[in-house]
Amino acid sequence: DFVMTQSPDSLAVSLGERATINCKSSQTVLYSSNNRNYLAWYQHKPEQPPRLLISWASTRQSGVPDRFSGSGSGTDFTLTISSLQAEDVAVYYCQQYYSNPPTFGQGTKLEIK
Amino acid sequence: EVQLVESGGDLVQPGGSLRLSCAASGFTFSTYWMSWVRQAPGKGLEWVANIKQDGSEKYFVDSVKGRFTISRDNAKNSLYLQMNSLRAEDTAVYFCARDHIEGLYFYFDVWGKGTTVTVSS
Fold this sequence. Notes:
The complex is a heterodimer. Chain A is mainly beta. Chain A contains no helices and 13 strands. The radius of gyration of chain A is 13 Å and the shape is globular. The termini of chain A are far apart. Helices cover about 0% and strands about 55% of the residues of chain B. The interface between A and B is medium-sized, with 24 and 23 residues.
């Protein structure tokens, strides 16, 4: 199975500052035939369902604020929140869907400094 | 509003059984693959199983094969997870999720809030 490793495990950022979460896959998730990265990002707040933020490594879902962006290719990916808002406090997960079973990173807990 | 609501979580003894349910609303349930995903205490997310629109194909993570079954009732817009021979390591919050399929592979575009299963004597 693909192993997804996120860093850091937790992160404290001041309101209005940039937050960066990294995700590394044990194998490439870039499909050469279509040049697409099979990588998604989710946000999970307490007492709420997880929410899909980004698919294909960088495609933001409808309704997701544009302060959230995804980047990277192959094995190394980044979720960036350009200006942290209080409502962004959550745990963030990456997930590969290049190979079955789909696997997730261990999560990164984002807090306000 | 698109919504998934899980139920059926409980405290159960090792070796016991439990059936989880997921009620779907706000979308055409019968046209989607559906999954169960779990989160053990202090751990990350783990995909458990999924089922095709008509129930003809089902897939499981290795750790639950032979113990868990997944089913659905499209007339009731409901998804189920029958869990047998439960172990302490099955203790987790179980989420129902809608699959977004890309060829053979998938991510999850709608989730429920989850239901808690505790396996302990």
